[in-house]
Design brief:
Blueprint (H helix, E strand, L loop, with lengths): L3 E10 L8 H16 L2 H6 E8 L3 E8 L18 H21 L3 E2 L3 E6 L9 H8 L9 E6 L5 H7 L3 E5 L5 H19 L19 E3 L6
Parallel strand pairs: 1-2, 1-4, 1-5, 5-6, 6-7
Antiparallel strand pairs: 2-3, 7-8
Helix pairs in contact: 1-6, 3-4
Length: about 220
């Protein structure tokens, strides 16, 4: 049966610098799975995909109803931090997923991407080109990106990546606490966005404030 679908993509840095924090992040994603997977209305209106990146990028959980998944694949640490690999795979994955959903006659809204990193890209000269392809205004499926930087992430870079909203963890806030807030904001966004408005549409909703984070200036795309 055709449905209105809002796809969510979570793109997480799993470089070695994240080694001490991935347990907290995996726990947060498990809570997201529980909250969304047990809400039949939200589960039907949204789809979820998890991508991890380091020197390369991989789809850890293909786009799905969270109610159809028993357990999410856990993030694990690897070498390097290639933003370019993440953006290239994300573009390819969104294109394929949207085409498949439309082929089933679903009404597909612009995807939402939650991007998280705690460091600097190891491909500083090449990642911008991959990013520009992802946010190309001529591409109707270009996603709304909500970017989060924690730890040693570069605030100007995080602000540049976000097209809908961008956040940087505040000084004095530990990575574990920041990741907990990230997971809570993600869960809140999926649940709220999965509700239908009075006009019968789905609308991406992101908390105006995220505990432990400062909102950054962005240029919406």
């Amino acid at each position: 049966m055709p449905e209105q679908i809002l796809p969510f993509y979570v793109v997480c840095d799993q470089s070695y610098s994240m080694a001490d924090h991935l347990d907290a992040l995996n726990d947060g994603l498990a809570e997201l799975h529980k909250a969304v997977g047990t809400d039949p209305v939200v589960a039907d209106k949204t789809r979820f995909c998890l991508i991890g990146f380091s020197g390369t990028a991989e789809v850890l959980q293909p786009l799905c109803r969270l109610s159809d998944v028993v357990e999410l694949v856990a993030l694990t640490t690897q070498a390097a931090t290639s933003f370019g690999a993440a953006f290239t795979l994300l573009r390819e994955t969104i294109e394929r997923d949207v085409d498949m959903l439309k082929a089933d006659a679903h009404r597909v809204y612009r995807p939402a991407v939650f991007f998280l990193s705690d460091g600097h890209p190891t491909d500083p000269t090449t990642w911008p080109a991959a990013y520009e392809r992802l946010v190309d205004p001529a591409w109707s499926a270009r996603p709304n990106i909500i970017s989060f930087g924690i730890g040693d992430a570069d605030a100007p870079t995080i602000g540049r990546i976000g097209t809908f909203q961008a956040y940087m963890s505040q000084g004095g806030v530990g990575p574990a606490a920041a990741l907990h807030s990230f997971a809570r904001a993600l869960t809140t966004s999926v649940v709220r966005s999965g509700g239908v408005t009075a006009d019968g549409d789905l609308v991406l909703q992101v908390p105006e404030r995220v505990a432990g984070f400062t909102a950054l200036q962005i240029d919406p795309v």
